[in-house]
Amino acid sequence: MTGTYPAGVPAPGPAGQWLRNLTAPARRTGEPAVRLLCFPHAAGGASAFRPWRDLLPPECELWAVQYPGHEDRIGERPASDLTRTARQAAIAAQWLADRPYLVFGHSMGALLAYETCRRLERLGIPAPDRLFVSGSPPPHRVAGAPSHTGDGPRWMHGYEHGAGSEAGPDDEQYDDLTARTLEADLRMLAGYRPGPAWRAPWPVTVIRAAHDPDLDAAAAAAWQDYAADDITQATVPGDHFACFTRPHDTVRLIAGAVRR
């Protein structure tokens, strides 16, 4: 199955195992002013963010993390420990930190983005300009309770309506692989045990879709305990997968940070 997904161009060197460049080819000229690093949701892959590439400002380079067992890493064993996965992602992400960058994570990806940023600070890697967390309660409301992700049928319905990664040529086989990857990711979430709350020392934006059953206003507000100072709450129209089914609203928020 390797090579059947439009998952982007791997980063050079060891970081290429984890990072995919989704920037439109016409924009891959010169040095970018800023980079955006995205963390996909459960069972999602880097290609889920591919539609964003024409919506971001031209000065922004689009990157996404590719988890083990997902898309062009389908031959690998899926990750089973969220914090270990975050450590590995942080080691890879330092390759992007030679210029200003932003971090975005949706649902499970929001938790991985947060944990990765925690480890970036520990490693002494330059900090992102802003962390965006979307579609997930904060760690202490998630740990050991994967029900926040919804049941399998609801998530599979979301993929069928535009929230999944871009499929390979055999959609039936792809659906089976997605279901198995989703199961593995939900097991990883069930085993997630965050450490003491770490307050991000850089700006944080919490993005909540108005009709997202997984993130109500109170849960979104609870992210305050994970930001040292500057935290912004933003609401967009739509449901849990709004950042993919109607991406303009979410990307507009990110673009505002790019151009500050």
UniProtKB/TrEMBL annotation:
Keywords in alphabetical order: Hydrolase
Domain of life where this protein originates: Bacteria
Pfam families: Thioesterase
Gene3D superfamilies: alpha/beta hydrolase
Name the UniProt record assigns to this protein: Oleoyl-ACP hydrolase
Domain Thioesterase TesA-like: 37-260
Family: Belongs to the thioesterase family.
GO biological process terms on file: lipid biosynthetic process
Signal peptide (residue range): none
InterPro entries named among the record's database cross-references: AB_hydrolase_fold, TEII, TesA-like, Thioesterase
GO terms assigned for molecular function: hydrolase activity
Keyword Membrane: no
